[in-house]
Amino acid sequence: MCSMENKDELMKSLMQSSKLKMPFSDFASRVMLTIEQDDKKSIAVLQDRKKGIYFFLAGMLFGVVLNYLLSRSWRDLNINLPQQENALLVSQIIYALLILFFIDRLVKLYQLNRLIKNL
Amino acid sequence: MDQQYIDKVLAGDRHSFRYFLQKYQDMVFSVAMSIVKNESLAEEVAQDAFVKCYHKLDTFHQQSKFSSWLYRIVVNTAFMRLRKIKIEVLDFQPDYNQEVIDEHELTLLEEEERSQLINEALCLLPANESLALRLFYLEEESIKEVSLITGWTDANTRVILHRGRKRMYGILKKLMNKANV
Q: Quick check: ipTM above 0.85?
């Protein structure tokens, strides 16, 4: 037991000589620079996210108005009813697909911010 | 003291993070070196670990010492890096049961020479053993803290420390014999 403790003391004193110094003098500055760049990226992503939401809402509103105007103009053009309904259906499907596509883009933008934080 | 600077960083004072860099960079580098055994890789690991530490500082809830929390990030980053580049650290297998270290001979060595010899020996140890020895003897962490940092059980930590000690003496003996020839 005593010998084990002595050996432990020896190991302790030996390990004191194993202290390593960071050999790169500019290490702290480089880490701070990386952190600064990450913070800037994070702010830029936040701004993009805000803009993305505004444009998404504006696009949704524009789509509703466009669909309404299209249906009215087709009515004025005296096209028969089944054709009018088909055209309206196509424009609404395109509108729904665009909404889904932009929701996907927005989700990815949200995930990007988390990704930058986890880098 | 650490908590004061954590609060400052969390309040938006990015430059206060320099305090952690200055205080822990050497030990973080030593821990990374224990695992990756290569200076430039260890520097990359240390840099990644500090950046992660900065971004995740809000998740540190004082359940452990700040240093233990930071070393855990370093250990995870280093092992992840090893897996990524698929480095196989060679396992040195000395016949350590027959080795008896000459303490007198070691004390005769100049400090710089001794430091070089010990670091060379640590480089030849498996990553988990050199890591355990550095944390336990150099950083003077308790078995519980070493377990917390590495994710091993207490019993496993004890076994690794025991093996590491024996293997370290064996390697030191061989290196000293080689130097004397």
A: no
pLDDT of residue B158: 93
pLDDT in tens, A56-87: 899 889 988 988 888 888 777 777 778 888 88
Amino acid at B110: E
Nearest CA among B172, B181, B162 for reference residue B102: B172
Min Cα–Cα distance to chain B from A63, Å: 40
Interface of B with A (CB under 8 A): 14-15, 17-18, 21-22, 25-26, 29-30, 33, 39, 43, 46-47, 50-52, 54-56, 101, 103, 106, 111, 114-115, 118-119, 122, 133-134, 137-138, 165, 168-169, 172
What CATH number labels B96-180?
1.10.10.10
Statement: the pTM of the whole predicted model exceeds 0.90: no
Spatial neighbors of B160 by CB under 8 A, at least 6 apart, are B128, B129, B132, B152
Parse chain B into domains and list their residue ranges: 2-85, 96-180
- Cβ distance of B165 and A15 shorter than 8 Å: no
Contacts for B39 with CB less than 8 Å, ≥ 6 apart: A23, B33
CATH number for B2-85: choose from 1.10.260.40, 3.40.50.300, 3.40.50.1260, 1.10.1740.10.
1.10.1740.10
Q: Which residue of B has its CA nearest to A42?
A: B55
Backbone φ, ψ for residue B58 (5° rounding): -70, -10
Q: Does A40 touch chain B (CB under 8 A)?
A: no
Residues 6+ apart with CB under 8 A from B102: B173, B176
